[in-house]
């Protein structure tokens, strides 16, 4: 193997950023329990508060019969709560998370073939044109700030055009998910070299002509020219960031994502203007730049599958199972590995005469990840990527064991203990694809109250969703613990309310929400309205414990752990469950 040049180690660090993009597109932190106030996040295992909650929360007729005091309390709560009860997105990502993802995307864009070769050219231009180092640095700063202004303006326009409500609803909207899926497929194919996505050349020519004016305006138009001519490389990254920020962030998400992206893009131009001699340490442009682009194209294809899975689950198509999803990811992973070691090549690629250290390590990581995914085809939980995968219940062939070792998926209580008058589990056929193996949940609020009275057990409501990545992560990392699983199975009546189910309610059950003023026509909308109106929350997962009359057993506003490692802490979740059982026994 030939001796690497001294810039190879820098190249290794830059290329490795690609692998971080997918890993950082994870969901927000889960909500462990209902919040008493939107800003209350302290832990309090002993605090037990009893609050009356009507047994038919989502029935208009019964609401009208409620006591005047309850109506006033609900009206007061509705006036302080978020605007729309029909929002069903999982807990939004923080602006900090979106900024970091944008930053990683920007650093990745820097090492793509449309931008990387421009670094020395642009810095040399400022150095020679200005005549002095101080002037060159100032012009580079203005150039960098101009790039940031252009991209942040784009993010703000996205927010203004769609608005916060529309952005929050993108995560479960079928049309938008299909659109995003197709968009990312196009981006991926573009990165693989089939074609280039470019803006009109006339626009680039006009901006380039204006850049000759000189002064601040000329520098701004230079930055605009860079944005336009590099769009074939940056467009797919920008599109992916905007899709993710818009569907999982708040109103300022797209702007914050673009700020992180543009900051990472602008920093190298400014830094190398300060230290021009450092340009000599950069690895020379070459075939490795296109390799970065191709690998990123494969990752775009892999990420696109998540949006297709979202639609499949929410609309009950029932054909995109977990093993199909995994098979496609395994195939994409194998292609990446074979590409990295030079066994496959695209039209724009140069020959790989030898394996460099960065290629070797990336190939090892890729093949190891593929091997890790293979047992998932037979039901292995794959906890590290469970948030991205369809639920385990979609697996046709599942050899995984039930966590408590019972070897049976039967509920804790025999069916004979449940009165025949309660009837069949309502809506159960809708949720076979998200059913947790070994747990028999109920899916209707009123029916769960009846079961709770018959079995003398408290209710654990799990506000969940087909497209909720944090719900899948909780189920794979916390519910799979034998102690947690045993408590849920034996000590509670599990009520799972899926807030993004698009199944239509019978016409007789349509109603106008007293909370949001919107007409509720879907089953998911019914449970989303219940979550927002009764529990002042619209994020998932949300866990609420009730007694047999529908009263809140524990004001568990403190059950959410703010620090990331503790969000999926089994001991905290056990304490939360135990406090509910203790309150019920009192």
Q: Explain this structure to me?
A:
This protein is 52% helix and 4% strand. With 586 residues, the protein is mainly alpha-helical. The protein has a three-stranded mixed beta sheet, sandwiched between helices. It has a two-stranded antiparallel sheet with strand order 3-4. Helix 1 runs parallel beside helix 14 (357-373) and helix 7 (174-191) packs antiparallel against helix 12. The chain is elongated, with a radius of gyration of 27 Å. The termini are far apart. The model is unreliable at 1-90, 408-416 and 556-566 (pLDDT under 50). Residues 407-582 form the Thioredoxin domain. Keywords: Cell membrane, Cytochrome c-type biogenesis, Membrane, Transmembrane, Transmembrane helix. It is a multi-pass membrane protein. The chain crosses the membrane at residues 95-119, 140-162, 174-195, 216-243, 255-275, 287-304, 324-341, 361-380. It comes from Mucilaginibacter rubeus.
Provide the descriptors you would attach to this structure in a database record.
single chain, 586 residues, mainly alpha, 19 helices, disordered N terminus
Q: How are the elements arranged and paired?
A:
Layout: H1 8-24, H2 60-64, H3 68-80, H4 95-110, H5 118-130, H6 133-169, H7 174-191, H8 201-210, H9 215-229, H10 231-248, H11 253-274, H12 287-314, H13 322-340, H14 357-373, H15 445-455, E1 459-464, H16 469-477, H17 482-491, E2 493-498, E3 511-512, E4 519-520, H18 523-535, E5 542-546, H19 570-585
Parallel strand pairs: 1-2
Antiparallel strand pairs: 1-5, 3-4
Domain Thioredoxin: 407-582
Membrane topology: Multi-pass membrane protein
GO cellular component, one term: plasma membrane
């Amino acid at each position: 193997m030939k001796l690497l040049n001294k810039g190879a180690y820098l190249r290794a660090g830059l290329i490795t950023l690609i692998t971080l993009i997918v890993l950082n597109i994870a969901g927000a932190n889960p909500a462990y329990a209902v919040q008493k106030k939107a800003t209350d996040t302290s832990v309090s295992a002993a605090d037990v508060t009893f609050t009356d909650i009507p047994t038919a929360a989502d029935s208009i007729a019964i609401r009208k019969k409620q006591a005047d005091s309850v109506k006033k309390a609900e009206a007061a709560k509705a006036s302080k709560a978020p605007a729309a009860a029909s929002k069903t997105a999982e807990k939004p990502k923080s602006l900090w998370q979106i900024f970091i993802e944008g930053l990683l995307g920007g650093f990745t864009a820097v090492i793509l073939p449309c931008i990387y070769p421009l670094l020395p050219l642009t810095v040399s231009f400022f150095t020679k044109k200005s005549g002095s180092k101080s002037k060159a640095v100032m012009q580079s700063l203005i150039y960098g700030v101009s790039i940031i202004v252009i991209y942040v303006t784009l993010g703000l326009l996205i927010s203004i055009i769609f608005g916060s409500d529309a952005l929050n609803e993108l995560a479960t909207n079928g049309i938008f998910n299909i659109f995003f899926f197709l968009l990312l497929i196009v981006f991926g194919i573009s990165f693989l070299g089939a074609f280039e996505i470019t803006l009109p050349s006339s626009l680039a020519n006009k901006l380039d002509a204006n850049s000759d004016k000189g002064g601040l305006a000329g520098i701004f138009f230079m930055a605009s020219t860079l944005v336009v001519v590099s769009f074939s490389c940056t467009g797919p990254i920008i599109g992916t960031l905007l899709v993710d920020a818009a569907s999982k962030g708040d109103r300022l998400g797209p702007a914050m994502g673009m700020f992180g992206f543009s900051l990472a893009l602008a920093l190298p131009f400014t830094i190398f203007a300060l230290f021009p001699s450092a340009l000599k340490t950069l690895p020379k442009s070459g075939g490795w730049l296109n390799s970065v682009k191709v690998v990123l194209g494969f990752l775009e294809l892999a990420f696109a599958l998540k949006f297709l899975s979202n639609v499949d689950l929410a609309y009950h198509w029932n054909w995109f199972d977990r093993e199909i999803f995994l098979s496609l990811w395994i195939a994409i992973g194998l292609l990446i590995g074979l590409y990295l070691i030079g066994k496959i090549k695209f039209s724009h690629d140069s020959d790989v005469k030898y394996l460099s250290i960065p290629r070797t390590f990336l190939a090892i990581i890729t093949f190891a990840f593929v091997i890790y995914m293979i047992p998932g085809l037979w039901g292995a939980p794959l906890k590290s990527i469970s948030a991205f995968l369809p639920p385990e219940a979609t697996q046709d062939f599942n050899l995984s064991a039930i966590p408590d070792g019972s070897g049976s998926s039967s509920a804790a209580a025999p069916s004979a203990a449940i009165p025949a008058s309660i009837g069949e589990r309502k809506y159960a056929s809708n949720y076979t694809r998200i059913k947790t193996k070994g747990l028999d949940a109920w899916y209707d609020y009123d029916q769960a109250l009846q079961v709770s009275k018959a079995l003398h057990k408290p209710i654990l409501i799990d506000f969940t969703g087909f497209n909720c990545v944090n719900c899948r992560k909780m189920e794979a990392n916390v519910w799979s613990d034998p102690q947690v699983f045993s408590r849920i199975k034996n000590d509670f009546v599990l009520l799972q309310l899926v807030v993004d189910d698009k199944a239509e309610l019978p016409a007789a059950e349509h109603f106008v929400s007293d909370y949001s003023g919107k007409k509720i026509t879907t089953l998911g909308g019914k449970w989303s309205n219940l979550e927002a109106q009764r529990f002042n929350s619209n994020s998932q997962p949300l866990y609420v414990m009730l007694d047999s009359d529908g009263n809140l057993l524990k004001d568990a506003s403190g059950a959410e752990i703010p620090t990331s490692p503790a969000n999926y802490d089994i001991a905290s979740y056990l304490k939360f469950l135990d406090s509910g059982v203790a309150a019920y026994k009192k």
